[in-house]
Amino acid sequence: MYAIVRAGGRQEKVSVGDTLLIDKVTTKPGESFELKPLMLVDGSDITVDADALAKVTVTAEVIKAAKGPKITIMKYKNKTGYRKRQGHRQPLTQIKVTKIG
Question: From the UniProt record, which GO molecular function terms apply (predicted)?
Answer without folding.
Answer: rRNA binding; structural constituent of ribosome
